[in-house]
Amino acid sequence: MTTEKKYIIDQWFDSEDVAKAGQLLDQSQHIVISAHHSPDGDAVGSCLGMAAYLKGKGKDATVILPNAFPSVFLWMEGATDTLLYDRHRQKADEAIAQADLIIFLDLNATYRMLDLGTALADSHAHKMVIDHHLNPDIACDVIFSYPSASSACELALRLIHALGDYEQISKACAENLCTGMMTDTGVFQYNSNNPEFFVLLAMLIAKGADKDMIYRRVFHSYNKSRYLLLGLILNEKIEYLDELHTSIFTLSREEMQKTGYVKGDAEGFVNLPLEIKDMRLSISLREDQEQSPLVHVSIRSVDSIPANEMASRFFNGGGHLNAAGGRLECTLEEAHAIALKACEAFAEYLK
After folding, report:
1. Residue 4 belongs to some domain of the structure
2. Number of structural domains, the chain?
3. What band does 5 get if pLDDT is binned at 50, 70 and 90?
4. Is residue 1 part of a domain?
5. Phi, psi at residue 287, to the nearest 5°?
6. Residues 182 and 43 in one domain
7. CA distances (Å), origin 51, targets 43, 235, 287
8. CA dist 65 → 264, 274, 308 (Å)
9. Residues 199, 57 share a domain
10. What is the pTM of this model?
11. Is residue 8 part of a domain?
């Protein structure tokens, strides 16, 4: 006879919040789970992981995301059942109208959900937030906001454990949560220096998550168009501000179309310049393929350089100390000028 291994981890959450969350989950039958627009691995993984957990408890759990996510996540259980608000609005609105609980994951404000945010904010359902970004601004019944966490997936796992339901985690739930923990730490390169992070990772592996397989499926499943785009960036697009130890690159809609861009192709490119010796900051500016004018901003930094502060001050965004992002409703040229001003404003950190 085998018995479940007992894992001891620090209890971050207030016991009253855990009790309130447990009560909401027990009393709710139709639950909508959602995250920010342009969902990344943590947004997708936390939503699908929580959905798998709730379905295992007999709940009707529907994942609704504002728009499409990269195809490298389509292998995850529940991914093909996800409703995309910009494509399946009628079905999504029906699920929202029926919901008695809405769970927001990996976001701190509903404006980061585009039109879906308005629909969810207007719902009279109970609401719960599980997030690791600064300054949460969502009206809800209970909130688990811990910026020190590596990912929303880590917080989802901690909550499931705090509720006493670790034994109920399925292999699919473990795989989905492991995916978000892996991607939001750059495969454990940042935001993962807490020894307990690896205890939590071990808990998912014990439930059947194969981290090696997940790595291959996420990072070895790109389209050829990604490498055409990478060649363009490396050969023609990167601008180096040597005195500031900074790099900036822009991607126009036309350039992406020329290389056959598919959503997700540029994922992670902003990290690459930091492989250069003494490089301290990297900024990516990418034109939206549909909305104009709109530029997506990604920022990566090292050490104590506050990427999140730069994102908040200059790019209508936020994030973590070394990984942040935002968006600008302007031309690519105007966004580039703003990026240069941002670098100058943070020169004391960069020189």
Report:
1. no
2. 2
3. low
4. no
5. -65, 140
6. yes
7. 12, 43, 32
8. 16, 31, 24
9. yes
10. 0.87
11. no
